[in-house]
Amino acid sequence: MADSSSSLLPLCEKISHKSYVLRTVDLTILGLLFSLLSYRILHMSQYDNAWLVAFLCESIFLFIWLIIICVKWSPAEDKPYPNRLAERVHDHDLPLVDMFVPTADPVREPPIIVVNTVLSLLALDYPPNKLACYVSDDGCSPLTFFSLREASKFAKIWVPFCKKYNVRVRAPFRYFLNPLDLTDDSVFIKDWEMTKREYEKLCRKVEDATGDSHWLEDANDDFEAFSNAKPNDHSTIVKVVWENKAGVGDEKEVPHLVYVSREKRPNCLHHYKTGAMNYLLRVSGLMTNAPYMLNVDCDMYANEADVVRQAMCVFLQDSKQSNHHCAFVQFPQEFYNAYTIELSFLQSYIGRGIAGIQGPIYCGSGCFHTRRVMYGLSTDDLEDNGSLSLVATREFLAEESLVRKYGSSKELVKSVVHALQRKSNPQSNLTNFIEAAQEVGHCHYENQTSWGNLGWLYGSVGDDTNTSIGIHMRGWTSSFVSPNPPAFLGSMPSVGLETIVQQRRWATGVAEILFNKQSPFIGFRRKIKFRQRLAYFFVLVSLRSIPELIYSVLPAYCLLHNSTLFPKGPCLGITVTLVGMYCQYSLWQFMRLGFSLQSWYVSQSLWRIVATSSWLFSIQDIILKLLGISKIGFVIAKKTMPDTKQVYDESKPSQGEDDVPKSDFGKFEFDSSSLFIPGTFIILVNLAALAEFLVRLLWSSGRHGRDGSGFIEACGCVMVVLLFFPFLKGLFEHGKYGIPLSTISKAAFLTVLFVVLSLGE
Length: 761
Ligand SMILES: O=c1ccn([C@@H]2O[C@H](COP(=O)(O)OP(=O)(O)O[C@H]3O[C@H](CO)[C@@H](O)[C@H](O)[C@H]3O)[C@@H](O)[C@H]2O)c(=O)[nH]1
Ligand SMILES: [Mn+2]
Fold this sequence. Notes:
binds uridine-5'-diphosphate-glucose; three-stranded mixed beta sheet
């Protein structure tokens, strides 16, 4: 395939982002934390319980910081060179890639968003006869199917248009946000206008069909399968929406598009997205059996046309090395619409850090997997040349073991054998496999097989982290490619309730891993590197909510109770330097990524809120699950199309301030769920303490009052109020931006209790 002459430049290189300055600052902060704790130990006998509690909380913060330092010590990323790939590998020798798009709810995930994702994939700059796109619909919605069918018609205009004019962003909604440049040549203008008209027609059709369900009644046979189907009760539906029969790789061709909806029955576990991914793995195995698979969420469009080539650079370079160990290539998750700055931040510091150890964590979208690895191989199963070892051949390819692992479908087993042995499937019509695809979509198909222990791993609503750690435990590495502009862009739910709910699912999902076979706290003989294991300690994130919650009411407690919280005299310098340094450091890192002071503040605030609501409640979720009282569900995040008025500038890096609607944070959405009680409680307690402090100050009118707490503890309260500002605002707002009275009353009751107990003795 690729020319192996060693004089050639590599297709991809590892770039180190090691920085001695960052390491020094990290270590200084660690040193300050140590000094603070030492000071606390030395003066433990002088102060009361608040001192001890602060000590305990800070010990946890120190532990977290220590892990963060270990994890981001040697950041790195891979830089692919698609041009070199184009020079060296002929299109016709490029490997096949299957692309998976899961969707689950036509209301929370409007079909036009799914359609845009699919179109962006169909139009990727990669030989069309090497691509196939599979959409899994857990909502079993005729509307989604209808939209995809219409989209496949539009694709015949869109794909050639993109390729002819080398369009960079191939999601039409995004492309048409930019106005036409009238200096362009007239043929282009004509094509542009025609394509835009067709796209608008498509949008209208989808919109009309959304509003009115009567069209379904006189729709043709194609829709028969959907009659009487309920999202949670229906048989498997497999529809080849478009088959690229000619398949020679011509620019005008549109890749295969297949719609599937696996069988669902009320009492049958379906494992949410994880189950959908495993079904996609099986169906695609039957139909196209590509050695590589791209997985994007239904709202994550490809923002860069050559993204597949970028990933192939990594895989093909890896396959030239003596040990082929790269299991997946992860592109960072970037978003076009919301407060995800902290995520960009985490990805560029912590994410790159992990990438420099064994490889990034698979984060559920924007990721290319190798099929063989997903079929359960570990690095030990391969010879140096990449073929199966003798032991693995015996273990994996024996007939009864194949059936036990992958299920009873003969066709599937055959395709698995081909995949494991890296043989390509002979070209054949997709429609020949419909029956087999229906069989492997049966809701009992996975019973008594290893699905869920191979493929995407079951046992957590955080399917991504769960599957990721499983792969790293088997010795594989992964690769982090972070191009600018980002390769994929998705949507994040609006700030407030939706974010809190989503973060709760994430925290619960990763906490579930603690009780799985993949827990980072067990299996010490597994092939995961030590620091990589440490990185996975973030599955404990829920527990962090406890010290965060305590710490945010501690200053208030100290003010009310007249206890000392922070060191006195010159040693107060330790705390002040620590806080000042941390703020400056994180702010500077934010600004380096192109974000503003305001966005830094918002992100600090949002994460304190998430910690004391989402993470806190995820502990409850886990406990209820362990007690068998309730199950953990997957609440689908609500997706919205970005506002068309928001104009994007292609030339600017996309993670900057421009993509973030600034007004959002002022519009923090609340509802009456108990998720908002802790935040309301925190704000009320701190306000009460500050009020008491002011009264006391006026009372003693300048004379020195007590010597326990004082000005510095009050500063602590002010900081907490600033961090929980959306709640302060929410106290006075109405409608969805206001905190409901019921929540305020509950929190006020708790506050009164807290104040009375604190003032107590
Ligand atoms: O029963 C389900 C539920 C969800 N999905 C799909 O899963 C994807 C992710 O769901 P979303 O509601 O957008 O969740 P996010 O929190 O945005 O997703 C992140 O977090 C999830 C784990 O909690 C991961 O699975 C995702 O890949 C990751 O992007 C979407 O395409 C859904 O259509 C299904 O296919 N079936
Ligand atoms: Mn999402």
